[in-house]
Structures are given as C-alpha cells and as structure tokens.
Amino acid sequence: MKVVLNPQFGSHDVQTEIHQGKMVPSFENPSRLKHILDHFQAHPGHDLIDSNDYGIDPILKVHARGYVTFLQSIWADWCAEGRVGDIVPYIWPVPGLKRMDHENLNAKVGTFAFSSDTAIMAGTWEAAYQGAQSALTAFEMVRAGERAAFALTRPPGHHAHSASYGGYCFLNNAAIVAETAREQGYDKVCILDVDYHHGNGTQDIFYDRADVLTLSIHGHPDTNFPYFLGYEDECGEADGHGFNQNFPLKDGASFEDWCGAFNQAQVRIDHFQPDLLVVPLGVDTYEGDPISNFKLKSEDFLKMGQLLKSLNLPCMFVMEGGYDVAPLGQNVYNVIEGFDRS
Ligand SMILES: [Zn+2]
User: Fold this and answer.
1) How far, in Å, from the CA of 252 to the mean position of ligand 1?
2) Of 13, 133, 221, 241, whose CB neighbour count within 10 A is largest?
3) 7-53 pLDDT, tens per residue?
C-alpha cells in the first residue's frame, strides 16, 4: 500500500498535558510516529510516498476561516506578548458566560479549545497543515486508481470540529478528505472511525448531511473521552437524519465485541453503497494502551485489516490515536498488512 508520510510530523512536540487532574508528559508525541515509521521501513512491501501541497482551500471547506487564522497566528501573537511555554487553555465561554470575539489571547484560546489536553507550540500549525496535505495526497492516490492508501500523520484529527480543537486534534483530516472527495465527484462517502475514542468532530461536521455516512466504533462516552458525544441515540439531524451511527462499547470490550459492532456497521455500509471509505485509524483499542480500555491484541489488528478489505471499497486510511508506543508500529502495520494481504 502507498503510505504518505507527514514530513512535519515532528514539529508539534508539546511537553505536557493535563490528564485526570495531573500535568503529565504528552501521550501524543512524535515518538509515536517514529515507531510506526521505523516498523514500515524495517518491513518492505509498502511504498513511502512524499506528500504534495494542495494549499489552504481544501482545509477551508471544512474549517471556519476565523479558526484557521487563529491556528496560523496564535503562536506568533503569544510570543509577541513575551509569553513562554506551550499554550494551554484554561477558561472557556460555557453557557452563562458571554461567547464573543475577544482580543485577549487567553480568551481566544478558550474560545477555540474544548479540552485542556491539547497544547499549542511553535510548530503546531505546520504539523497540522502538512498532516492535512498528507491525507489529501493519500486520497489522490486512491482517486488515481490505487485500491487503498494510508496517510501516516500526527497530530491526529478526528476530534477537531469545524471551529474548535481538542483531544490532541487541530484539523480534521478525514473530514477534509471526505469533503474533497465529494467536490471531486464522489457521490457518497462513508467515514468508519475505528479509533478507541468517538470521532466527535467528524460526526458534528457532517451531522446534517446525507452524502457522508459517519460511523464510529469506540469506548463508551459514559466512561471515556469525549464524554459529551458518541452515544447510540445520535442519529444525525435534518437531511442527515439516519446518516450517523455510533457503536459505543463498554470498557473491557474484546475483539469479539468489536467485531459485533463492525458487523452492524457493515450492514449500514452495504446499504449506503459509498464510492469511498475513509478510515480514521487509531490502534488505541490495543490492550496495553495507557489511556484506553479495550482488550484487542496485536494479531486482532491483522483481522481488522481483513474485515476492512472485505467491505470491498476504495479505501483511504488516516492515522489517528494509539499511545502504547513500543507495539504501536506492529499494530498499525498489522492493519495495513491485513488489508493488503487478504
Ligand atoms: Zn483515540
């Protein structure tokens, strides 16, 4: 499979995050991608491809211009005020406060952030921007006739909404690809999110649309991030009613449980008959993941790849989560290998 690497994956390298009340080293860091890259380079059979640059326009089809301008400029603005260290949000305009265009940088950050786990630093925009470009490059491979392609990138994207960031995500790469595909003549796109966490941003972006079916198999939001979205009763609205489905699974779910959800998702996909499948690929469903609670084993990811292949659709993978760094390369490789070899 063609694998498109984000060349700027290392330029977003924040030091800490707030996790369950403590400042801890960021779980989402460049060593994740380094491990995956090392594994692919040590196991020939998949072509590493350079990323093209399709400019800002595809990003602006999904993300609000004011939000993109914020991401592009906040670090320079921060430094111009003499501030040092990563930018971490600490106040949010929740109901009861006034939501407004604020000039103060603390207020601006809180306006666009939805969680405190996601810091911004000097290279954040470059990493996110090039990540979107790598996803678009992988899509272009599929559009040109490849059976499948994989965008190997970080930071991840599926938690990012049209105008807010959080859950380590800034630009929603899967949504940018889906929207681009629609504009380029694909009538129907399905996004099947297999990351451990619900793809809240992706769901929200397409929630009122019937042309993009959004499905997500994830840890139940009763006990897992993002807590405030990802429940079974969220089915879409207006034209999009019936075109979103969530498959939340309880903590401790096995691969057998996961396959039960996949089988239901497959029925939806078969009925929808999309022209393109986009898979936000997180392997934080792995049993050893430090911030997740499923019980998938490394060999299960081979079977996951085979199941995704069995959907028999042009397929585009985009890298999302997975935080047990040592086996991360093997687990991601197994999905891609399982897909390619079946
Ligand atoms: Zn995740």
Assistant:
1) 15
2) 133
3) 999 999 999 898 888 889 999 999 999 999 999 999 989 999 999 99
Is 144 inside a domain boundary? yes
Q: What is the pLDDT of residue 20?
A: 85
336 located within any domain: yes
Please check whether residue 119 lies inside any domain of the structure: no
Question: pLDDT value at position 155?
Answer: 98
In the reported structure, the alpha carbon of residue 2 is separated from the centroid of ligand 1 by a whole-number distance in angstroms of 23
- Residue 186 CA, ligand 1 centroid: distance in Å: 28
Domain assignment of residue 100, yes or no: no
pLDDT score of 77: 98
Q: Tell me which residue range forms the domain holding 185.
A: 2-58+124-341
- One-character DSSP codes across 11-68: S----EEEETTEEEE-SS-HHHHHHHHHHHHHS-SSEEEPPP---SHHHHTTS-HHHH
- For residue 318, the model assigns a pLDDT of 98
Residue 159 is a catalytic residue: yes
- From the CA of 197, how far away is ligand 1's center (Å)? 4
The residue type found at 276 is: L
Q: Which amino acid is at 114?
A: F
CB 195 within 8 A of CB 218: yes
Ion ligand 1, residue ranges at CB < 5 A:
195-197, 282, 284, 321
Domain count, the chain: 1
Measured CA to CA in angstroms, residue 144 lies from 49, 53, 141, 191 at distances of 14, 16, 5, 20
Q: How far apart are CA 111 and CA 94, in angstroms?
A: 9
CATH number for the domain spanning 273: value is 3.40.800.20
Interstrand relation of 2-5 and 148-152 (parallel, antiparallel or unpaired): parallel
Q: From the candidates 63, 158, 159, 198, which is the catalytic residue?
A: 159
| pTM of this structure | 0.98
Q: How far is the CA of 340 from the centre of ligand 1 (A)?
A: 24
Q: What is the pLDDT of residue 304?
A: 98
φ and ψ of 231, to 5 deg = -90, 165
